[in-house]
Amino acid sequence: MLKMSKRLLENLVHGPVTRLKPREPFEGARGHVEIDIDKCIFCMRCMRECPSGCLTVNPSDGTWNINQFECIACGVCVSVCAKHAITMNETPRKPAYHKDISTYRGTPPVRVAKAKAPSEADHKAPENEKKESEAGTPSAEA
Amino acid sequence: MPDSNISFIPFGPQHPVLPEPIHLRLVVENEKVVEALPTVGYVHRGLEKMVEAKDVNQMIYVVERICGICSCMHAMAYCQGIEELMNVEIPERAKYLRVIWAELHRMHSHLLWLGLLADSFGYESLFMQTWRIRERVMDILDKTAGNRVIISVNVIGGVRRDIDTEMQKWVLQSLDAIEKDLREIYNVMKDDYTVKQRTVGVGVLSADDARELGLVGPMLRASGVASDHRMTGYAAYKDLDFEPVVETAGDSYARMIVRMKELFQSIDLIRKAFARMPEGDIAVKVRGNPTGEVISRVEQSRGEVLYYIKADGTKNLSRLRVRTPTFANIAALFKILPGCSLSDVPVLVLTIDPCISCTER
Fold first, then answer.
1. Is B335 helix (H, G, I), strand (E, B) or coil?
2. What structural domains does chain B harbor?
3. Which residues of B touch A (CB under 8 A)?
4. pLDDT per residue as tens digits for the range B312-327
5. Is the Cβ of A22 closer than 8 Å to some Cβ of chain B?
């Protein structure tokens, strides 16, 4: 008991050790995922690599949807995004009443028509699809 | 009825002292426990089955969620297994970083356990002081890895984050402060009358019994068996010379002392790792899918975890099997509970450091 008394007295005058929420996040903390939809090319890689399956990317109508309540903020989408459109915000999201899905609308790039096949000019597949590696390729954030 | 003094007491699955649901069917004669039958099965989530739905990389984040407290070590065991299957040699710096985060996880796990133990015999102020120290460890994890508990730093081929020199200085300063605070707590835990009354000579397990029951981790080491899977030298442990912490008494007190000493050992290991960590890359690019089967073992804070991984060259594994340390340590309850007083049951259940979400996955 006496061994603890010094500590107990210190605790009386010392401020709280825990940091109350909402609090100033540490630099590089994983708060929530954000996207700059203008940079997005709708390659769907984030959707394929996402472990929780919270992302739905739809290149045909140009929507990028995230269910923030299913998102585990692991940061995989941030590290695989080829155009660095997805970023990790350091602050956690505010609580909400409804589990809404956030939808971002952008313009999917249209494949440029080749001289040989003009009939495919309106094909809506994203242009970088051929660059994508096989699913299951591990990637690391530098 | 001839055995009128015998009664059955259900202990758990909901009990103030239990952090997670485990049910014990206690047969008591007056105040003395005659027989104890543990039952698990309240938090099964079927995470191993998820290999069918999630690919090799996505499974890292699933295995991390088997257990929050040792999430880093779960991911480490899984990644080491996959790396072995794919013949990937990860950079030296990544090995050291894995050790640092694993030891930080061991520290916060042991501190949490010490608090729960103090709480189990009603020493509330010691409980709060232990968790006060733990909060500093959580801050280190938060600042270095971006999250407090599930830090998601391990990937196949290395780690995702680096700890730069400036951050290393801050971590080492924090560790100095933590060590100073830990000394205070250690002296209280070691010598305090209340603590000794409730732990010394309670739930004694001999070395032979411990070995026979197949116990792992601090439970085994507290009975005098120097078994620590880190000694096999996975990750960077081969370069960090250390000896397993062993106590011979085999009682609750010895288990507590082993875990306290391991806290200081972890601090030493982190210091050594920072001092010896080479410069260089933190991850290598890994392509393709694994084939074959492997057993990967890692020493978690509660003992040795075993991962059996079977892959057939597709992006999904064909089988994943995890044997967690608590699964092995629950066997100790059959031995230490019979004969003890009913009031000692909460303390004894906690001394095995039960992690039921690990056990049931």
1. helix
2. 43-332+342-355 (1.10.645.10)
3. 54-62, 125-126, 129, 132, 135-136, 139, 142-143, 146-147, 150, 152, 155-161, 184, 187-188, 191-192, 282-289, 315
4. 888 899 999 999 899 8
5. no
